[in-house]
Amino acid sequence: FKKQVRDIQTKKKILEENLSTLKTQKQNVEELESQNRTLTAQIGFLENDLESLKESLMEFAEKTRDDLQLELNNLSENLERIKQNAENETSSLASLRDKISENKAKSNFIEKQRMPELRMMIKEKSKIFSKIKGETVDALKPDIEEKKKELEDIQRKLQANLTRIEDVKASMDRLKDAGDVCPICSNKLPKKKKSQILAERRKHIAEFRRDSSRLERRLKVLKNVVGKLEDRLDLIESYKDKFELVETDKKEIARLEVELKDLKDESKVFDNHKRMIEKNLELLSRNVEELQNRQIKLKEILFKREEADSKLEKLREYRNEWQRISL
């Protein structure tokens, strides 16, 4: 019986070992199946990605990576050349615009300022010359001198009146301070007499002031007359000497008319050239945009090719692993 028990225990132990082995094998199989499923899914994802990349790469399928890189390098060189041309044209356009603005400013100055000024000057000079034609410097000078002497005489009278007023005021102050004694003769000075004297002196001051007011009015009139006469004299002297400049002004107008015509003709040439440059810049801008779009496209294709190569390599690795697991 004991022998049978030992045999049973031995068989049990063997069965338990076999069961443990089976469990381990089952676990390994499950792990392999999980890896298989994961690899299958990853292979599917990569195949889908590669299919999408294949569609986007079809346009350049006939070109090698070196072909694409060479075209990209040529594009970069062309872009730099076109951009440089555009910069040169932009600089030329800016310079041309400056010339157009300068021409316009000159034309406006000549047409709207200088020539009208000259015409006005000719008109004014001619008008004034016609007015002063009968007058002479010798006729005006004695009249001016006479008026100036009268001015000096009035100024002396005004100064004299001012001195008199100050003297009377001073004597009034002395009289007021003297009390009831005359400051001149030292005799007794009644209050009534003192008031009469002060009233008379105030009357003198009023008379002097009225006379001064009259003289100042005359002085003002004379100054105005003398000023106008002197202006007239200056006008006669200046325009007598400068009237010959009218002919010079007329010649200047004729010269400016020629210059104005040349400026306008030159502006037309500049405008035509400006339109040509602007059109050329527009074409260059479109070329730059097209080349930049092509450049972006090529860089994208090169990037996708690298991505596709990387995914193909990964796909090969997954398939090899999947085959290894499936065996």
Q: Order of SSEs, N→C? A: HHHHH
In the predicted model, the low-confidence regions spanning at least 5 consecutive residues are none
The gyration radius over C-alpha positions equals: 59 Å
Number of helices: 5
Oligomer: single chain
Average of per-residue pLDDT values? 79
**Spatial gap, N to C terminus:** 48 Å
Walk me through the structure:
The chain has 327 residues and is mainly α. Helices cover 91% and strands 0% of the residues. It has helices at 2-57, 65-131, 137-177, 191-242, 245-326. Helix 1 runs antiparallel to helix 5, helix 2 runs antiparallel to helix 5 (245-326) and helix 3 packs antiparallel against helix 4. The longest helix has 82 residues, at 245-326. The two termini are 48 Å apart.
